[in-house]
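Dear colleague,

Following up on Tuesday's group meeting, I ran the structure prediction for the two-component complex that the binding team flagged. I've pasted the input sequences exactly as they went in, so you can double-check that nothing got truncated or mislabelled along the way. The structure tokens for the whole assembly follow below. Feel free to forward this to whoever is handling the docking comparison.

Inputs:
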Amino acid sequence: PDSPLARWTKSLHSLLGDQDGAHLFRTFLEREKCVDTLDFWFACNGFRQMDLKDTKTLRVAKAIYKRYIDTSSIVAKQLKPATKTFIRDNIKKQQIDSAMFDQAQTEIQTSMEESPYQMFLTSDIYLEYV
Amino acid sequence: IDSEDDLLQECISSAMPKKK
């Protein structure tokens, strides 16, 4: 009853917490040309766990900003303008905070739950795996 | 010194689920 597959359909969060589930969802998103949203989601989680005293952390924040937010990437398109401005200002002032990407991650997660996650559960990639 | 891409990749990988 609590097979991995049962967990995958429970929520996006449980799908992404499973190695095979995350891998398969990534394959699906690559095909749909929106894999950046998933990489951004994982980058936000990784960033939150970083040590704020480590100089590497500011560089990672800048790298996330440059790669996903200050571009025409699908992530930037799905974020609210105010969310992008908030992150840009933090980066400019070098004010790094573990929660600085939380709002952006929530917006991306909501949009993944609304569309690609639902599509994934009816996709041939998923059905073949099942 | 690590490149920006390496740092980003490392950050993403650190958050990926590990095999149980």
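Chain A touches chain B through 23 residues (CB under 8 Å).

Cheers,
M.
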